[in-house]
Design goal:
543 residues, alpha/beta, five-stranded parallel β-sheet, five-stranded mixed β-sheet, 42% helix
Length: 543
């Protein structure tokens, strides 16, 4: 093993195998206390977490624990307490290894996995069995018979095939579900031969009937005891990443407090239970400290385009990206084209920000975008598709908008903004019901807020310092955006006039907080048209 003076910590980028991680001396955030609780208290377990959150490493850790590889756990919580280290046969299925594009592809992959385990355990099974379920159950029983040991089954990313066929036809989706159902139903059918079974995925367990007898599984996804089983808590960040934090602070010229604040705003605030336990995205943190710079790493790790297309073709509403209250049933439900909230929560684009109860004592959750990185990911992935343009074209338009914004060219950047908004499909501007006068009044408010969100998302994607509905002494400003040279104070109107918008800025003194800070202040009244769904008029004056 080579050593380099500039490598202080060996970060496990892309390493999901616990044995390889430990043998290479890579950083390991000890989660074995959770493993001990799982294997002691549970038998059939399901865990849902967003992609790149450490589910694969968790299952790998469990695998080597049951294989009895004691030396790998030296210095860990479980390594200091386990005395027996009894060995069990383990069947570990990583469903990410298949493209999962259709049922036939999935069938071929599962048969291949079963054949490899048949060879590994020296079990002879009629490999002409076409039913993957029958072949799986036969393998479990045969291993138990040969080893006189119960079998451990680990299934990673069980819903890979489901997520990859979200945009396919209903018949293709059902064919995929049928194929997986035949395979996944076997652990319960062979329960007396099973020591422990754990399934992980993005979609919540209750979303699909892929498992026989779902009550047989304990869904720990929102169990407070396992709130931090994946992800990095603030305490773990402080304990395990001290060197990385110090190096990043030195590189960026920040103090430690500012560095932690940036990391918190960019990568923290994922919350999966009603307890206020927050975790960071581990994938992003590892990349930050390995490269010693802040970046949008989660989006670069390969989010499925199918997922994005699914949202654009569903009844997805941009208003859903603002804070909203939902009940637990909706959060855990199966996502449909009519309701994308479960998908957004389960994939990590929304997270729990606050918890309350209704009058009957049922839990209610306020959902919102977790952090800056996810906000950027949403814009980068969704906006080009909504506008019907390529990523390259969107990048060109965005850069031109920012160049004009930073140079104080108000007509220029508003023209670019108008062009970008005009390409968004009409259906995205959902006015809501309009049956009564009250509905119509609410519709105006809803459409105005929709424009706020769109403009804010574009600005945030461009790393423009912008704040929406900012409170000042005179009231609430629709939006303030700033550079080191310019301050843009904006008031939006739907089907109004730019004169009215400017008058509101002056009457309420919205621009006063910046009149003496040395920068050029622009007061801008912008009018959006409900008919044409873009900017129809604007005026601006220099303070």
């Amino acid at each position: 093993m080579f050593e380099f003076d500039d490598i202080k910590v060996n970060y496990p980028l892309g390493e999901h195998d616990f044995r390889e991680l430990r043998r290479k001396g890579q950083l390991y955030v000890d989660k074995t206390q959770y493993v001990a609780r799982l294997v002691t208290c549970e038998k059939f377990v399901f865990l849902s977490r967003p992609r790149r959150f450490g589910k694969s490493l968790l299952l790998s850790t469990i695998e080597y624990y049951f294989r009895g590889e004691k030396e790998l756990f030296e210095g860990t919580w479980i390594g200091e307490r386990e005395k027996d280290w009894e060995k069990y046969p383990v069947l570990h299925f990583d469903m990410t290894q298949t493209k999962g594009l259709d049922a036939e592809n999935m069938n071929t992959f599962i048969h291949h996995c079963l054949e490899e385990y048949e060879k590994s355990y020296g079990v002879e099974i009629n490999n002409r069995l076409s039913d993957v379920g029958l072949r799986f159950s036969t393998l479990i029983k045969a291993i138990y018979s040969k080893t006189n040991k119960q079998v451990v089954i680990l299934i990673d990313e069980y819903d890979k095939g489901i997520l990859e066929t979200l945009d396919a036809s209903e018949s293709a989706q059902e064919a995929m579900s049928a194929e997986l159902r035949a395979f996944y139903s076997q652990p319960k059918a062979t329960t007396k031969y099973i020591k422990f079974c754990m399934v992980t995925g993005v979609a919540r367990f209750g979303s699909y009937t892929l498992f026989s007898g779902p009550n047989n599984y304990t869904d720990i996804s929102m169990n407070t005891k396992y709130a931090a089983i994946c992800g990095i808590t603030q305490q773990e960040l402080n304990d395990y990443f001290k060197i990385g934090i110090e190096d990043l602070a030195t590189e960026m010229g920040w103090n430690i407090e500012n560095t932690l604040s940036v990391l918190r705003q960019k990568y923290d605030s994922y919350r999966f239970t009603h307890y206020d336990i927050l975790v960071y995205n581990p994938f992003s943190l590892l990349n930050v400290f390995n490269e010693n710079k802040v970046g949008n790493y989660w989006i670069k790790s390969g989010t499925s385009k199918v997922f994005v297309k699914y949202l654009t073709r569903s009844e997805f509403d941009l208003m859903e990206l603002k804070a909203l209250w939902v009940d637990q049933q909706r959060m855990e439900g199966k996502y449909t084209r009519e309701d994308s909230i479960p998908l957004l929560f389960q994939t990590g684009y929304l997270t729990i920000k606050e918890v309350d109860c209704d009058e009957r004592g049922n839990l209610l959750y306020r959902l919102d975008i977790p952090n800056g990185e996810v906000r950027n990911a949403l814009v980068d992935q969704l906006m080009p598709l909504y506008m019907g343009i390529s990523d390259t074209e969107f990048t060109i338009k965005s850069r031109e908008l920012k160049r004009k914004f930073n140079s104080g060219d108000v007509p220029g950047w508003i023209s670019e903004l108008k062009s970008m908004i005009s390409k968004i499909p009409y259906r995205l501007f959902n006015p809501g019901r309009q049956e009564t006068e009250e509905d119509k009044a609410n519709s105006i408010i809803r459409l105005e807020k929709t424009y706020h969100i769109i403009v804010m998302m574009i600005f945030q994607m461009l790393s423009i310092d912008a704040r929406s509905e900012m409170s000042v002494s005179g009231g609430s400003i629709d939006m303030v955006a700033q550079t080191n040279r310019y301050v843009y104070v904006m008031e939006f109107k739907l089907d109004g006039t730019s004169e009215e918008a400017l008058a509101q800025i002056d009457t309420n003194g919205y621009a006063l907080p910046w009149c003496a800070d040395g920068r050029t202040v622009y007061k801008i009244g912008i009018v959006f048209s409900s008919e044409y769904r873009t900017i129809s008029d604007y005026q601006f004056v220099k303070q």
